[in-house]
Amino acid sequence: MTRYAMAVDVDRCLGCEACLVACSVENRLPLGSHRLRIRETATGAFPDVTVEFRVEQCFHCAEAPCVGVCPTGATFKTDDGIVLVDPDRCTGCKACVTACPYGMRYVHPRGYVDKCTFCEHRRGTGRDPACVETCPAGARVFGDLDDPDSPVSEAIAAADRVDVLFPNTDAEPSLFYLNARLVNTLAETAPATVTGGEHG
Amino acid sequence: MPEADAPTRIEVSPPPGPPPRVGITRRSFLGLSAAAAAAMAVFGRTARAAIDRLPWIQRTDVVTTHSVCDMCPWRCGILVHSVDGRIVKIDGNPADPKSRGHLCARGQAGISFLEDPDRLRTPLIRTGERGEGRFREASWEEALDRIASGMLDIAERHGPEAIAFLGHTSGDTWFVEYLAQAWGSPNAAKPSSSLCTSPREEAALLTVGRAIGGHEPVDWEGVEAIALIGSHVGEDARNTLMQDFSSARARGAKVVVVDPRLSTAASKADLWLPIKPGTDTALLLAWMNVLITEGRYDAEYLDRYASGFDELAAHVADTTPEWAAPITDLDPGLIRESARMLGDRRPRSVVVPGRHVTWYGNDTQRMRAVYIVDALLGAWGREGGLYFNASPYLEPYPHPAFTVAGSAGGCSADPGAEESDELPAGPTGKHRADGVRETFLRGPTALQELVPPMITGDPYPITGLVAYGINLLHSIPDPERTREALRRLDLVVAIDVLPQDHIAWADVVLPEATYLERHDDLWAVGHKTPYIAMREPAIPPMYDTKPGWWIARELGLRLGLERWFRWETAEEYLDRRLISIGSSLDRMREEGGIAVQDGAPYLGDVDTPFPTPTGTIELVSTTLGEAGHAPLPRYEPIEEPPAGHYRLLYGRHPAHTFAKTQNTPVLHELFPENAVWLNATEAARLGFHQRQEVWLENQDGAVQGPVAVRTTERIRPDCVFMVHGYGHRAPGMTRADGRGASDTALQTRYVLDPICGGAGMRVNSVRIHTEAPA
Amino acid sequence: MTPTEVVVTGTNPGTHPVLESWEWTIPAYLFIGGLVAGLMIFGGVIRLRAEHRLPKAIVLLDWLGLPILGAGLVLLWLDLANRWNAWRFFTTFRWTSAMSWGSWILLVTGIVLTLRLAARAQGAAGRIRLLGRVRPLLRWAGRVVDRFQTAVDVATIVLGIALGLYTGVLLSQIAARPLWDSAFLAPLFLVSGIATGGAFLCLFLDGRQHRLLAPVSIGACGVEIALLTGYLVTAGVGFVTGDPAAELLLTGDYAPAFWGLVVGAGLIVPLLIEITELVRRHVPALLARTAPTLKLVGGAALRFVVVFAGLETVL
Ligand SMILES: Nc1nc2c(c(=O)[nH]1)N[C@H]1C(S)=C(S)[C@@H](COP(=O)(O)OP(=O)(O)OC[C@H]3O[C@@H](n4cnc5c(=O)[nH]c(N)nc54)[C@H](O)[C@@H]3O)O[C@H]1N2
Ligand SMILES: Nc1nc2c(c(=O)[nH]1)N[C@H]1C(S)=C(S)[C@@H](COP(=O)(O)OP(=O)(O)OC[C@H]3O[C@@H](n4cnc5c(=O)[nH]c(N)nc54)[C@H](O)[C@@H]3O)O[C@H]1N2
Ligand code: SF4
Ligand code: SF4
Ligand code: SF4
Ligand code: SF4
Ligand code: SF4
Ligand SMILES: [Mo]
């Protein structure tokens, strides 16, 4: 079996936003819509401050809570572990948006729900997802979790620390954070600013 | 300063057309048939809609063009993919030594920059007052004729030197070099020299006899320890640097970051030294002290390659960490520990030459101190240290000698180019008007020093200005002075892609095609593996825009400079240059737009590793000594901000370039306005809450605001930080206009570097108000 | 406390950090759905038990059931981001999806209520000229309902219960919102639906009929209070932020609406009025009308508070 997964080395990530823009361009997202976001957290008092960038996108959960709630089957899971939305079947009822514990889905202005697809459309081309491909810091790896020799399995095996976000949800995300310092150790804090939703 | 804050608007009145007619005319008939054609096109489009849903990457009709990114001056090699004349995606060119298949956020956003609906679309001729922003549309013919006659008129009255050519972005070679040199004005300058890299270039020439060049020669692959002084990698989002920094860290290299602010780079560092701004030279002297007194330097290397070690050792005998601690506000233990971290990994240990280094006006000396530490570490010309970059072999297009030699420098400057002692003079014998040799010693033309002659006529009048791809009111300190100059000039030409603030001050505005729609000259990049890169258009120019080479040539022809413009197209020009090195345009295309040559990176590869006057690494600079400057860098305190003021620091945001991308739709929404970083304890003391609206007033009463305050633990309490490039006053830039605050507007002062002519811009400070100051 | 600063880049409006996926139409629909469910249960039971003292309950159900449900469906439909894809609900049945269950329940409920309306209209057809054209259809409906009276009533009750429960399951299925994650939510919404359905009836009943319903009404209030307590105790438990979730209702931003409208106006005050009514056998007419009105307000408030506060809670 194939289970596609991504790993993001949080220690490497520079929060440079290249992945964010690459995703928007590759997937022709309209202004104000994003499939991934970056959370910058700074904690501590000057000069002992820890800063961490955390990219967040659909985790392609093994036990995806968004799949079960979909009334039309528009949201489904592929055999290789990717959670997708079929825009033609989607009614925009937002049950899945509400059900995603991570806030990773949004309503596309064209009336369907959209989210990260792990760049499923690239699978046949032999190319990595657009965000992985462009990452200047080499922080992202993609591959088959069930194949111990895949880049993602190797990166996970080599990491000092491996996290998934909110392990208590039982959703079993397929996106792993490597070598993080803050993930899951801090109570979530309300952001001081949020950008991206402003329509150009 | 009434106009200063009066928003300038670009209003374009349509050119007077023929009077309306009635009945069925040829015009209305054509209109009808056009409507019919449009209706057909709609059918065609619906048929195509299905195909459109196919992701580009799965299509078989994708055309890929090899080119070079211009979203910032770094120039990564790119692959531009288009379908049916529309660009669908830009990727890094894996064969390119800079991009290696990756791109930064801005590089990824090229399509959005291209398709920004606010772009300049047609030539404009001013109809209102300067700064008012009223224009009418004009034909290229009229616009170019108008410029040419204005230039010829000025030349007749004052000589060709009276026209300044200021430019940046990657087509600048056509205007700041080719056209300016053919025309005969030595007053051609780039902001990437005296507002950016001049100090590090001059310091390197003085110390090791080599320029740093466009690509800092850090041998990242083998480095085991690096120190960054400022240099905020990650926010300074140069693609290659982010790659190298990350790989080095992943390999286990130690990182020391010296920055008053916990930058992204500092947040990744093993040691962060939150230094008091402006005191870096003291820290560097303390590092030298530790390295020398503890014997953690490469004695054998210095013996062989350097001169002046004993004097240096004596010079730093007392500059201990304990001496530097109160100056730098750093813990002496931390100073010592960081020096050891570097020293113990020598020679695979580098203090990175920064890029934007025009900070306090004493910057050449600080950069000398950086290079001396690098010499103590034995890094120059060593693996894992600082390699020797070489320029690739390339011939110029065969044309008659230029009327005046170039001295614009810039971050694209050829690292191999030696500076001649002769100052280039124009045909009437006048040399540069920037005060070189009088107010500063040497170096490329100091851009900001060309502004006063425009106002005072001293040493001689400059009455015309060609501004190509430079943001006159965002990039040059003291923008009020720049406005004064713009008010007085006889001719102001702006060649740009966006209706930036300064466009409203131009007499004639020429809309250039963006980098994705045009050819440019070749880039010969000095590098470990020297290479030549080529830009080609992926699509034809949109609207009524033209490429820079075409504009320069058309102007040249009108100015009587035919001799330099014998070539008719950029392709002909490029082909000829490439043929001269045994390649050709076609071959270059086949080879992926990049031609990589062999370099000579290490000590053993070159005959003269250090081509200084003494042929050694000059720890003590003979040139500076002779010119009456300190031959060894000294710590000299800079002026403290007045009480209640915070020193104004600035830097980059990873998704934006200077003041150029704020209007780019996909980048705009990620960071629509800047905020002023203020230490959280200070903010609490002053009673500011997170993101409160404030106004900034600098030491001279210049005001910016409202702008949000970002209260953060990530900065020292004695300074504030802003992302550069915000606070546009350009109504034509509909997204950027009025968003955030301008650091430049608060830089009413700068300190001229007496050695290289750089403008130290971190000498300004601000007070923070909760209401707009009266 | 360690100072912490968070900056988020690249978000989507309505999703993060504040979830605004569902707007007022959804709680309004949930309220209406519950109300119809209550009407159906009352109407069905009264008819089955041949309770001749309350014919109005059946008449109201037959006439108003479908229009009210229809209004709710319009709200539901308005919420869809792709309204022209609504038919997709009926191309499949996904047993894991409360919303899929709901779509089918609503469809069958709609059919049954249409039948009831048609049958009722057939009786009235003589008086209404406009109905002339569809008279054969109405007659057919009338015959069906006559013939399968009991089955239709049983179906009405079962569907009423299903409808009432599903409005709660729709939320409680969504584990990502701690405030909804309680097994008590579905029965709570059902009982609240019965209570609001009863209250709606009461608006049309006279004092005597009203008193007949009072014990049921008081009972429903009691059960609702019990379920609400159970809900508050269980909501979100087992998750990190489970308790803050409940706090949002009890002491947070939603506390005034919760205590004032849901508990006070919707439960306690009507309970007191109805008990008084039962004991004293007489209360001023105005006061008697007040109790059901308050219950309706409370029922609506319950949906709004639970939906909106729930959207704010994250794991
Ligand atoms: N995203 C993005 N990246 C860019 C550019 C861009 O426009 N956008 N421009 C490119 C260009 S041309 C240049 S020149 C570079 C500029 O980028 P750099 O060369 O990195 O510029 P610096 O001024 O060294 O870096 C700014 C940092 O210096 C710190 N600093 C301020 N004052 C002092 C001081 O007194 N001492 C010390 N030690 N640190 C101080 C600030 O806190 C800030 O973190 O960026 C390049 N990269
Ligand atoms: N206050 C302050 N001043 C600074 C700096 C700072 O950090 N703070 N940084 C300094 C540094 S390091 C540098 S290198 C300089 C950079 O100085 P500039 O290069 O002047 O900076 P930009 O704002 O990018 O301005 C580029 C101009 O070119 C236009 N342009 C963009 N693309 C094209 C094109 O394809 N063709 C043409 N014709 N025009 C184009 C843009 O619209 C804009 O007007 O600024 C220096 N000045
Ligand atoms: S591109 Fe890479 S380094 Fe940059 S923000 Fe994304 S994951 Fe982090
Ligand atoms: S992250 Fe959210 S949208 Fe993605 S699979 Fe998990 S639950 Fe579904
Ligand atoms: S919004 Fe679309 S994908 Fe999501 S649950 Fe509804 S129908 Fe399914
Ligand atoms: S995998 Fe593709 S869709 Fe998902 S975030 Fe990356 S680029 Fe976007
Ligand atoms: S660093 Fe980024 S913006 Fe600059 S040239 Fe490279 S890809 Fe383009
Ligand atoms: Mo620069």
User: Segments of chain A where pLDDT lies below 50 for 5+ residues?
Assistant: none
Largest sheet of chain B: 8 strands, mixed
Hey, which two chains have the biggest interface?
A: A-C, 60 and 49 residues
In total, how many beta strands of chain B? 28
Helix count of chain A equals 5
Mean pLDDT of chain A: 93
Shape by Cα distribution of chain A: globular
Terminal Cα span of chain A: 43 Å
Taking Cα atoms only, what radius of gyration of chain A do you get, to the nearest Å?
Answer: 17 Å
Rough outline of chain B: globular
Q: Which residues of chain B sit in consecutive blocks of at least 5 with pLDDT less than 50?
A: 1-9, 13-33, 40-51
Mean pLDDT of chain B: 92
Which small molecules are bound?
ligand MGD, iron/sulfur cluster, molybdenum atom
Main structural class of chain A: alpha+beta
- Terminal CA distance of chain B reads 14 Å
Estimated share of beta-strand residues of chain B: 15-25%
Fraction of residues in H or I helices of chain B: 25-40%
Largest sheet of chain A: 4 strands, mixed
**Proportion of strand residues of chain A:** 25-35%
Strand order of the largest sheet of chain A: 8-1-10-9
Distinctive features:
heterotrimer, A: 200 residues, alpha+beta, four-stranded mixed β-sheet, two-stranded antiparallel sheet, B: 774 residues, six-stranded mixed β-sheet, 24 helices, disordered N terminus, binds ligand MGD, binds iron/sulfur cluster
Describe the structure.
The complex is a heterotrimer of chains A (200), B (774) and C (315). A 4-stranded mixed sheet of chain A has the order 8-1-10-9. A two-stranded antiparallel ribbon of chain A has the order 2-3. In chain A, strands 4-5 form a two-stranded antiparallel sheet. Chain A contains 5 helices and 11 strands. Chain A is an alpha+beta fold and 200 residues long. Chain B is α/β, with parallel strands linked by helices and 774 residues long. Helices cover 30% and strands 16% of the residues of chain B. Chain B is globular. Chain C is built from 10 helices and 1 strand; from the N terminus they run E-H-H-H-H-H-H-H-H-H-H. Chains A and C meet through strand 2, helix 2, helix 3, strand 6 and strand 11 of A and strand 1 and helix 3 of C. Bound molecules: ligand MGD (2 copies), iron/sulfur cluster (5 copies) and molybdenum atom. Residues 69, 71-72, 74-76, 103-104, 106-107, 238-239 of chain B line the site of one iron/sulfur cluster (SF4).
